[in-house]
Amino acid sequence: MSKYATNRPIWMERPTVLGRVLKSLILVAMVVAVVFPFLVVISTSISSPESISRAGGLVVIPTDVSFDAYAEILLGGVVSRAVLISVGVTIVGTLLSLTCTIFAAYGLSRRGSFGHGPLLTIALVTLFFAPGIIPSYLTVKSLGLLDSYWALILPTAINAFNLVLLRNFFLGIPSELLDAARIDGAGDLAILRRVILPLSKAITTVIAMFYGVAYWNSFFSALLYMTSESKWPLQLILRVFVLEGQQIGVSGEAPPPQQALQMAIVVIAIIPILVVFPFVQRHFTKGVITGAIKG
Amino acid sequence: MNSNTVPRSMLNRRGFLTAAALVGGAGAAGLMAGCSSGASSNPTVNAAAGAMVELPTYVPSAGLTPDLPGTPEGVQAGYFTYPKELVKSVATPPGTGTALSSMIMTFATPPSNSQYFEAVKTAMNAPIDLVLVPAGDYIQRFSTVMAGGDLPHTIEIPGYLALPRIADFLKSQCVDLSEHLSGDAVKKYPNLAAVPTQSWRSTRINGRLYGVPIPRNVFAPAPFYRKDIVDSRGVALPTNADEFVAFCEEFTSKEKGVFALGATDDANPFGSDFYRGMFGVPSFWREKGGKLTHFIETDEFKESVAFSKRLWDAGVYHPDSPSMKTNQATDLFNGGKLLIAFKGNAGWAINQRTGQAVDPKLLVGVLPQIGADGGPGQTNLGGGAFGYTVITNTAKDRVEEILSILDYLAAPFGSEEYHLVNYGTEGLHHTAGPNGPVLTEKGKSEVIQSFQYMAAPEGVLFDAEFVEEFVKPAHAWQTELAPHMVANPVTGLISDTESRVSASLQTMINDTVTSVTVGRKPLSALDDLVAGWRAGGGTKMIAEYENALAES
Fold this sequence. Notes:
The complex is a heterodimer. By secondary structure, chain A is mainly alpha-helical. Chain A is 69% helix and 0% strand. Chain A has 13 helices and no strands. In chain B, the strands form seven sheets. A five-stranded mixed sheet of chain B has the order 3-2-4-15-7. Chain B has a four-stranded mixed sheet with strand order 9-12-8-13, sandwiched between helices. Chain B is globular, with a radius of gyration of 26 Å. By secondary structure, chain B is an alpha/beta fold. Helices cover 38% and strands 14% of the residues of chain B. Chain B has helices at residues 13-34, 115-124, 138-148, 166-173, 178-181, 190-193, 197-200, 227-233, 241-250, 273-279, 299-313, 326-334, 348-358, 399-409, 416-423, 441-446, 467-481, 496-517, 525-551, and strands spanning 78-79, 100-106, 128-134, 154-158, 204-205, 208-209, 211-215, 222-226, 259-261, 285-288, 291-294, 338-343, 364-366, 379-380, 385-391, 430-433, 436-439, 461-462, 485-486.
């Protein structure tokens, strides 16, 4: 019998050198596979048109560094304005959506609350049926929200999936805590504020992240509801930049934008998410596994 | 979570699933009832016999004499220099100062607080609210605007988009312009009268004139090639199919990553008009004795696909071709890695300019159309219009004013109005260079293609910087092609089925051509394509068009 043999399962054994090398190589390969395209995007975005053409379209290691693409995008004034609009819609929308979702989830998690059954059914039905473009447009129009920033926020203020997620979490909070608070004289709002929300930091962070990313990436609502191009958010502006080349390259209506320009657009679009994510990663990780382990 | 925390009142899993099934069933039934079969309530969408109005009378613009003359067949006039003296084609501002809304597509990011927009609106005395919609999403926005009922005063209808139920929309929501534009009535608007007759054909729907065209030249996408590279090697241009294959092989080197061909139409990488012209493929439809045959049903089409497959098998296509995007093809072309690129011919000078910025030696040429066995081959006669602008019923009491505004925007090359619309205000958006207007930085960002998608004049061949590289060879290419153009026999006719299914059928055709070319499917798949096309709506389309032909 080997001197290393134990009664532990094999995955708990001390790994061999070969095993550790293999695992490291696999992990490095996976990281490279994920990071490499992203690096190519950044490299291409800071390359000159000549070096991009020489490389056949995508540059791995930039030789002639040029920030002309970023200058063209950011100094035009259009993108700067669109960034402010996107940031505003994202912040306001996320706060409003989070607030509405928390209140709705709390109400729907309390036994016997008014209209509990029908309201929850209505919310769940929206998980099965999307309204479609035209009914959504007609609804927004009838509410007088066309060409208003609220058209980018209110129609999607509460997401049924997030609502169900949060409701289920609230249901999992031990009722003894709530009973104890009620005995101490707390009302429903006080219970929500002082008991439930402090326990729900992880899940609310996750849901805030979901809403924030959705608002930041959203362009279709602006396309449908915004008649003034001065109110276009960043993603719609960037989409025009990116789609220009595909449309007009065929018809010859105008020259396609440079590859560098399109790559710079991609970088600009994801920078805010990259900046924010490290600050919420801890909560995000905790929140994602919430509910995975039955309590 | 324990059972004590689950509300007892309503929703256990069984109850929820039952409720969902009931709701879903009711909803689906409602949706299905709302869905029509898609057939128009009008069994024939085209006008009854005898209702076909006359196209507007063509009256060429007086004033400028071109250096290279245009022709009635569609060859564009060419100019070597920008006119020193501009003519005034519109005596008084056409607008009344009343607000006007116009929905158009945009291929550029709209500028903020554009002084260019304000300058043009002021000159026309027409405060136009331009509703700019990104070109890639125009069909979605158009659908919602149609459904929403709050229509702008004018809407651009792009010709290349299969907009749903367009005939019904025009008839019910748009002004019939026949009495204003048909025949000699158009002479009230001299600039519109100077729009070529071919451009007006696509605006005659159901036998009536519904729009003002946005003219384009009638020529097919051009097979641009690196003339500097070919000339440096002293290789003669091909004159038949076999020579074309040898020509491509001559300029292909896998080791150096250089290929003769690459796909430049994202949706249709191998369906080149150039190949189809070599084998005599009809222009979308062949009409004989009132009977229609779609081009995919012809032997000539199969020969053209077999030829593209031959080229693929010869290795002269860039390996990325099936998924190549236009930008990648442009970069490869400019970098000398791609010899031939099929692109819209209107972009000749633009491609020359942007390519030369990358490679100063770059010279864009166009391969002459050839026949498979030698001879001139043929080419499709284009619709002559990018689209057209309609006036909706919300402005039915302002038709003459709006037509006057469109007449202003259709002012010809060499006019003051054209100068303002295309170059903006002098000193602010452009300066006067030795060869013509030179856009300033502000001009480059503000003067975007915008009003030109409401109305525009007949295009001309002009680029003062590239007379030898573009104006003269483009005029020669068009002159050579003009006698061999084949018209689409159903131009100006509407098939309700086509507007619904053409996008999906075209995807089917493109995918099959690609699959056969790269060897994923055998040539016999083209027979399956015909069967699938017919089953997918092609048979109905044929019936509708034949009916329309009989009535026209």
